[in-house]
Design a protein that fits this description.
The complex is a heterotrimer. Helix content of chain A is about 75%, strand content about 0%. Chain A contains 16 helices and no strands. Chain B is of the alpha+beta class. A 4-stranded mixed beta sheet of chain B has the order 10-2-12-11. Chain B has a two-stranded parallel sheet with strand order 1-8. In chain B, a hairpin with a 5-residue loop joins strand 5 (about 175-180) and strand 6. Classes of the chains: A mainly alpha, B alpha+beta, C mainly alpha. Chains in contact: A-B, A-C, B-C.
């Protein structure tokens, strides 16, 4: 009982201290957080309007029934899966430069999954009936429905990517050695889980014979390949920002970034190769199903909305591939960052709107309806991206000082001991400036 | 100021206590505003799990609500499957002239939203002669002065009530299922509006209530079935139910009765004397997109 | 002997009554009996019974265009090979004439149509051709339509109809909303 009370006190203490930690920062930090909160508020208010009126407030319709929200969801699940590219080098190969930052990468994966889940939630027509999806309490259609698998996989992955870093960070905070026997199985589990979440997301598109654009076996490999491009690219950019902005002395070596960028080169090659394989199959066989590809790449019966987007994405991906391939450009931070930006945007177009929309064009009865998100959808989407960034920022604000050792129980004890002396002096009236 | 443990009662702690109290105070009216009815709605069970008493209670609640909203006395039936029935539909393509009388008869019978959004369970496609299976060349919005137009044939499509329905497979919450008499139904109060079923349907049989439906009060049809044509709510999926409120009482669906050229046929496959058995035995029937393995129960056939 | 004869007659009458009752019952349950359930054939108001005029008129069997009466009827139904009196009985205008000379009522006009249009007649008997409304099972009211209800016997080809409006295009949903 005493032990339990002690654990509770320690946890509450830790929590209160982290709150203090995130509440204090420099001007840049406040500016960043407050601007993110402003975007979140705007997004939230837009969502309330959508919730009130119904999804008619968006530009989705019966023909294109999934739009910007699900496009973002697909992309973000891929970005989250990319944390595995940090976990494998650090825990399986013990590659030291990445080992320093793997915890931050896992927290990035957690924020990404939170964003993905939020995108699904705003896309649901009846969020108030969400409990119907909970196993045993509601009536989850497991194992037939891939969405049910996705819910379990995403929540499981979120749990892992919160459990592992928080466990390690808390242990480090208390300067205690983590119980590897306990945590290592979870870490190793997160590797197949990362592959699993994105495979399940691919399968939920893949298993629909009604949509020939998606009903291709190559979909799951394509998803993984593009995920392993975009996620690490975001990680590279974010870590450079952290390195620059953080007041802590966090060691993020260039070595780690270059290793990750090498992995991106392989992933991008695979991505381009699989895409070419699909394009060959559709254009050479010239069945009816080539219609969706035609809509995407050249326009179908005069409807060409996505054509400039996809060609921009293709150009970006190819340029980025060469940047990552050639060691000289890969190992220079300026070109590396350019490559990363190109990958992030290119894969977003290819995997978001360039994947979800052509699945609906033409629709099963041959109708062509073009879709463009309206301002409400854009604001809600920005709001959710801002939420993810804010969560990630707050997590970093706590995680990085813990990693560097600035924020730990030891220093707190020392400080409070000193303050205790201060209080005693005040009491006794012999207060002197320290 | 001092608190216990003799530490200074800091500004931070004061702010923290104040904000927590404010949050608690603000949430109280929010929690209490959830009326008993809303809580009941929220906790309503899946139709297949309701006991007969549950069903009675839900029906009474819905009847009262519809009375208030539409000013008419509703009869909501929960009639179960008639034994030894397995419904199928026949459509004689040589006779369809594309007049869309079926579309609007269905809209009236089944209380579909008329505008914002306009929902129609039946869609008539116009195809150029010489082409049938490639629906990509179809025209949905034809509007000539007179039909039929020369050189075209017309193909009405609605929910095909598949035997292997892809929509039932993908629904994450079991909100849609196939009844033993072959009709695929939706529990509108259970649907969470994820629209996965709409993505999965190869025939565009399902439509979505993007907003609260708009039905003119004078056109409302008050004899409804819980799983069929009762007025729906926003963000629930709906589709043709073979007029479940009619066929379980032995009446023809509304579209069958509305067709001026006798194109539409309906019957019980388990009855050897039914019209559908006659058609399948004697006419050359086919079904749309049979290669997808959905096993639809909507048979198209030609006379001439 | 008389008594025996009488008994036999009574017995024969009895058997006849039972058989006819049985036949009546049998006929009543067969599709043929539902003739009474057909809605009456569509006739111009005041036309029937035709014998009101024709009983006293002179018979002219010559194939010609009618100039004085029935000018609104344009025959477009094998008109090069037939004319009015091939279907309407010359002697009794209240009846129709089958090919073998048998006279049938207007309520049985389907028999006449079926003489040429055999496949459609067979399909119509099974409910495949034509229209049925109401209840298809049980004891509810059902309506079977005669050939003449949909096909004007003189001009059987369906006239083109004005179609109902097409569905709203998807963007229209939003345009309409913004106009509110």
């Amino acid at each position: 009982m005493e032990k339990l009370r002690e654990t509770w006190h320690e946890t509450w203490h830790f929590y209160r201290r982290t709150l203090t930690l995130v509440a204090k920062g420099n001007k840049l930090y406040y500016a960043w957080c407050f601007s993110l909160m402003a975007i979140i508020v705007v997004g939230f208010l837009s969502y309330l309007k959508q919730h009130d009126v119904g999804l008619i407030a968006t530009n989705m319709n019966d023909q294109v029934s999934w739009g910007l929200y699900i496009a973002n969801f697909t992309y973000l699940v891929g970005a989250a899966a990319a944390a595995v590219l940090l976990v494998i080098p650090s825990y399986v190969y013990h590659f030291k430069p990445i080992k320093e930052i793997v915890v931050l990468g896992e927290l990035f994966a957690a924020s990404s999954i939170v964003m993905a889940i939020l995108f699904v939630m705003v896309d649901l027509g009846r969020l108030d009936r969400f409990w119907h999806m909970i196993p045993f309490i509601g009536s989850m259609n497991f194992p037939q429905s891939l969405l049910a698998w996705d819910v379990l996989a995403l929540n499981g992955y979120l749990f892992l990517n919160l459990l592992i870093p928080i466990y390690l960070l808390v242990k480090f905070y208390y300067r205690k050695e983590p119980n590897w026997k306990f945590i290592l199985p979870f870490i190793l589990l997160s590797i197949p889980m990362a592959v699993a979440i994105h495979t399940v997301t691919a399968f939920l598109y893949n298993g629909l014979p009604a949509r020939p654009f998606w009903n291709a076996s190559i979909l799951a490999p394509r998803f993984l390949a593009s995920a392993f491009c975009s996620g690490p690219a975001i990680i590279i950019i974010i870590f450079q920002i952290i390195r620059k902005v953080s007041t802590s002395r966090i060691e993020i070596e260039d070595e780690a970034l270059f290793k990750v960028s090498e992995l991106i080169a392989y992933a991008m090659f695979l991505n381009l190769f699989l895409l070419s394989a699909e394009i060959f199959k559709e254009y050479y066989s010239q069945t009816v199903h080539v219609a969706s590809f035609k809509y995407l790449f050249e326009g179908l019966h005069g409807h060409k909305q996505l054509v400039p987007w996809i060609w921009a994405a293709m150009t970006m991906n190819v340029i980025a591939f060469f940047i990552f391939l050639i060691p000289q450009t890969r190992k220079r931070l300026t070109t590396l960052n350019l490559g990363c930006l190109l990958v992030i945007i290119g894969v977003w177009i290819e995997k978001g709107p360039g994947f979800v929309i052509p699945g609906f064009v033409p629709d099963p009865l041959g109708e062509i309806v073009q879709y463009l998100p309206n301002s409400l959808e854009l604001m809600v989407s920005f709001g959710i991206w801002a939420t993810g960034l804010l969560i990630f920022t707050l997590l970093m604000k706590v995680a990085i000082p813990i990693e560097t050792g600035e924020f730990s129980h030891v220093s707190y004890v020392e400080r409070s001991f000193r303050r205790g002396e201060e209080n005693q002096a005040w009491e006794q009236g012999s207060f002197k400036k320290f | 100021m001092r608190n216990r443990n003799n530490r200074r009662y800091t500004r931070r702690e004061f702010l923290r206590n104040l904000s927590l109290t404010a949050a608690a105070g603000a949430s109280l009216p929010l929690l209490s505003s959830c009326s008993k009815e809303e809580t009941e709605d929220f906790l309503q069970k899946h139709f297949q799990e309701m006991t007969p008493e549950d069903k009675k209670r839900v029906i009474a609640k819905l009847e009262e609500r519809y009375q208030q909203k539409y000013g008419r006395k509703f009869q909501i039936s929960t009639q179960e499957v008639v034994p030894d029935t397995f419904w199928a539909y026949g459509l004689e393509l040589s006779r369809c002239i594309g007049c869309r009388r079926c579309v609007y008869a269905c809209v009236k019978e089944n209380n579909q939203s008329r505008h914002d959004p306009q929902l129609q369970w039946i869609r008539v496609l116009r195809l150029k002669r010489g082409n049938l299976i490639n629906l990509e060349n179809s025209e949905h919005y034809y509007h000539p002065d007179l039909v039929p137009e020369k050189g075209f044939i017309y193909l009405p499509v609605q929910c095909q009530q598949c035997q292997e329905p892809p929509c039932v497979k993908v629904c994450p919450v079991h909100a849609t299922w196939q009844e033993p008499d072959g009709i695929v139904v939706v529990d509108y109060n259970w649907c969470i509006g994820c629209r996965y079923c709409i993505a999965a349907c190869p025939y565009k049989g399902r439509v979505f209530n993007w907003a609260e439906p708009n039905i003119p009060k004078e056109e409302i049809n008050p004899s409804v079935h819980y799983l069929g044509n009762r007025p729906r709510m926003k963000c629930a999926v709906e589709k043709c139910t073979f007029c479940i409120q009619r066929v379980r009482q032995g009446r023809y669906p509304a579209c069958v009765e509305a067709c001026p050229t006798g194109t539409r046929k309906f019957g019980n496959l388990l009855d050897p004397n039914s019209e559908m058995r006659y058609i399948i035995d004697r006419k050359r029937v086919f079904r749309l997109k049979e290669d997808l393995g959905t096993e639809p129960k909507f048979y198209y056939f030609f006379e001439s | 002997m008389f008594k025996q004869e009488g008994c036999r007659t009574v017995m024969r009458l009895f058997y006849a009554a039972v058989t006819s009752l049985f036949l009546l019952f049998f006929l009543a349950s067969s599709p043929f009996a539902v003739v009474e359930e057909y809605t009456p054939p569509p006739m111009t108001e005041g036309m029937y019974p035709c014998s009101n005029c024709h009983a006293s008129m002179e018979l002219n069997r010559k194939k010609r265009d009618l100039k004085e009466e029935h000018t609104d009827i344009k025959l477009h139904h094998a008109e090069t090979m037939r004319w009015c009196l091939d279907c309407h009985d010359a002697g009794n205008r209240d009846k129709l004439r089958l090919y073998n000379g048998e006279l049938i009522k207007f309520t049985e006009s389907y028999r006449l149509c079926g003489e040429c249009h055999g496949p459609q007649y067979r399909d119509w008997r099974a409910g495949i051709h034509g229209k049925r409304t109401g209840y298809f099972t049980g004891s509810g009211k059902r309506t079977y339509f005669l050939c003449a209800h949909c096909h004007d016997p003189h001009e059987p080809k369906f006239k083109p109809l004005k179609p109902e409006p097409p569905p709203h295009r998807p963007k229209e949903n939003h345009d309409a909303k913004s106009k509110q």
